[in-house]
Amino acid sequence: MQTYGTASIKARDGNYIISAMTYSPSVSGIILLKCDSLGNFISTKGLFLQGNYEFATNNIIELPNGNLTLGGTEYLTQRGFIIRANSQFDTLSTQWLISPNGSGFTDFCETKDKGYLASGTYSNGPLGNQDLLLVKMDSLGYSGCSEGHIPFSTSGVTFKQIPTNIYISSNGGLLFSLTLNMQMGVQESVLCSSLGIEEHLNNSTDMNVFPNPTNGTFTIQSNLFESQNLQIFDINGKLVQSQVFYNETTADLSHLSEGLYAIRLTSIHGIVTKKLVLIK
Predict the structure, then answer these.
(1) Separation between Cα atoms, residue 81 and residue 70, nearest integer Å
(2) pTM for the predicted model, two decimal places
(3) Residue 147 banded pLDDT, cuts 50, 70, 90
(4) Pair type for strands 41-50 and 153-155
(5) Which of 88, 101, 178, 194 has the fewest CB atoms within 10 Å, i.e. is most exposed?
(6) How many CB atoms are located within 10 Å of the residue 212 CB?
(7) Which residues contact 180 (CB under 8 A, 6 or more apart)?
(8) What's phi and psi for 267, nearest 5 deg?
(9) pLDDT of the residue at 112
């Protein structure tokens, strides 16, 4: 199994977080490492997938709560991916960014609305060349454009030989070069679009949805002790389930496709909407 470092950042605690690509004909994945300024390893964890893949992380973002967001490209199928993990490297969500083969991402960043913007190329685009690809995501990493969950398995990682040549730049990152093939004229094309799901809150009603993400069954709790109408919509705005409940209830979406759903709670005090991620 071969392993190469692909991205790194200096964390808020002064240590360094490194993402490495590891692959073999049978098992591939990503290894996350944390080390101090002297290169001493503090923690490691591997995300592994059966098969031959090459997951190269292009960027790592550390959020104020310590959670991490990693984005990059799987080179063999040329698909973008995004991984959300906590500070202990436990995964919160993993998914492909867009379904058609031929898309690859060179960078991504956090936006002011706490979502993400990824940029890259799409080789099967309308110009038949290396077209520019932009994907806007929400805070959970979903764009509503046919993403699919990546079924990583996680385990601890032990190195037989501790690497001694680790070089980290002064800003805690890596240096990338980007070559652009210039063309005369620009053609804009939308690969996919989504109505999106906006979260709505009000001062009188509080709704708690857990677990989120879920693999099917989840609980909805309200701070109100009165009759309330619960509606669940898919990413396209189609109503997929509804019921009336009092203070707490459960719902099951295991028969539906994975993706992003809107949970809407309506009472005499107003409407509350929250997002739910269904993974399988």
Answers:
(1) 8
(2) 0.59
(3) low
(4) antiparallel
(5) 178
(6) 18
(7) none
(8) -140, 180
(9) 82
